[in-house]
């Protein structure tokens, strides 16, 4: 029992490594190129025109939206859109099938699972592995966007104060900032160049990236365009608010770090103890496993442990 649980965990880790390895093999060179400059500038450096670059960036960001209409795949689609991964929806499905097949073979070879059980577990591992990988990519990209946004707003403020119009200030951010902010603002700049309302473009980016501070920026610009006022002063105040909020968030995260680790330790200790007991003494629970109370008690303990995890997570999950 314990050895099988360890095997399941190792197979799932292997699934995550395979997904990351396939992604790096397929898009490693473009990822390295984009790390030196943002994606938009990288495409422009290849000799593509602004219209072609705009079409390419739009296609990359909207290719996963078609998956929203399918209930199960919509979960992957939303994370893929937030992470802006280079995998197309078909490629994601192909990778899911690949890692599910890998899981199926590993389960048959290294565990005592039958074909039906191995099939069910491999499908869950394939979907869960891709979802976990996308969640990590999306969280990393959103975190980086939140960190870069105050600098982008400061660039806009300085550009407005020297007399540039707002559209040109957006283009300054697109040329000076790395990804993900650089390409996202570059997309707005190109959309405004080809006739799209800049407020609508900002709102579209806010919906796409799903960062609260970006929604504040979109709303501030939209209100100023209707009621007037000094946009530079408004955005300067917004930049200070974003920085103060980000600073407070880091302070809260530092203060709650010990509590979070304590919570994870206390939540994971019962499972680790159960695993060690099964590994060191496989027959430890044989005397009670056949009684009528074993399954109800096991279910009760599982429910209580789940409630324990949720409660401790809620206690340290402070919104800023």
Q: What are the defining features of this structure?
A:
single chain, 320 residues, mainly alpha, 0% strand
Calculate the terminal CA-CA distance, rounded to whole Å: 43 Å
Could you estimate the helical fraction of the residues in percent?
over 70%
Major sheet? none
Q: For the record, what CATH class of the domain at 144-241 applies?
A: Mainly Alpha
Protein structure class:
mainly alpha
What's the overall average pLDDT, rounded? 84
- Percentage of residues in DSSP E strands: under 5%
Low-confidence stretches: none
Outline, from the CA principal axes?
A: globular
**Radius of gyration computed on alpha carbons:** 25 Å
SSE arrangement, N to C: HHHHHHHHHHHHHH
CATH topology of the domain at 144-241: Receptor-associated Protein
CATH architecture classification name of the domain at 144-241: Up-down Bundle
Number of strands: 0
Number of helices: 14
Would you write up a description of this structure?
The model has no long low-confidence stretch (mean pLDDT 84). Helices cover 82% and strands 0% of the residues. The longest helix has 47 residues, at 115-161. α1 (2-36) runs parallel beside α6 and α1 packs across α12. It is mostly helical and 320 residues long. Among the domains are: 144-241, Up-down Bundle (Receptor-associated Protein); 256-320.
Kindly summarize this structure in a few lines.
The protein is mainly α and 320 residues long. Among the domains are: 144-241, Receptor-associated Protein; 256-320.
């Amino acid at each position: 029992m314990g050895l099988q649980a360890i095997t399941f965990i190792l197979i799932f880790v292997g699934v995550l490594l395979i997904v990351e390895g396939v992604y790096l093999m397929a898009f490693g060179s473009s990822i390295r190129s984009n790390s030196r400059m943002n994606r938009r500038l990288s495409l422009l450096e290849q000799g593509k025109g602004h219209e072609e670059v705009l079409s390419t960036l739009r296609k990359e960001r909207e290719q996963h939206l078609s998956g929203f209409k399918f209930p199960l795949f919509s979960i992957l689609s939303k994370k893929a859109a937030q992470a802006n991964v280079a995998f197309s929806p078909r490629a994601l499905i192909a990778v899911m099938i690949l890692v599910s097949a890998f899981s199926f073979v590993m389960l048959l070879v290294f565990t005592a699972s039958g074909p039906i059980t191995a099939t069910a577990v491999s499908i869950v591992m394939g979907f869960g592995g891709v979802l976990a990988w996308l969640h990590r990519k999306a969280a990393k990209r959103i975190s980086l966007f939140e960190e870069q946004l105050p600098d982008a707003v400061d660039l806009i403020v300085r550009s407005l104060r020297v007399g540039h119009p707002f559209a040109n200030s957006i283009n300054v951010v697109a040329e000076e900032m790395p990804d993900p902010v650089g390409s996202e603002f570059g997309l707005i700049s190109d959309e405004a160049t080809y006739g799209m309302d800049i407020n609508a473009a900002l709102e579209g980016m806010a919906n796409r990236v799903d960062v609260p501070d970006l929604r504040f920026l979109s709303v501030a610009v939209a209100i100023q365009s209707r009621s007037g006022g000094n946009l530079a002063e408004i955005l300067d105040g917004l930049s200070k608010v974003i920085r103060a909020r980000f600073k407070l968030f880091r302070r809260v995260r530092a203060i709650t770090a010990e509590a979070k680790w304590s919570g994870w330790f206390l939540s994971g200790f019962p499972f680790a103890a159960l695993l060690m007991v099964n590994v060191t003494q496989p027959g430890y629970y044989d005397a009670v496993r056949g009684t009528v109370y074993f399954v109800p008690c096991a279910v009760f303990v599982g429910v209580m442990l789940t409630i324990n995890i949720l409660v401790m997570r809620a206690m340290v999950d402070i919104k800023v």
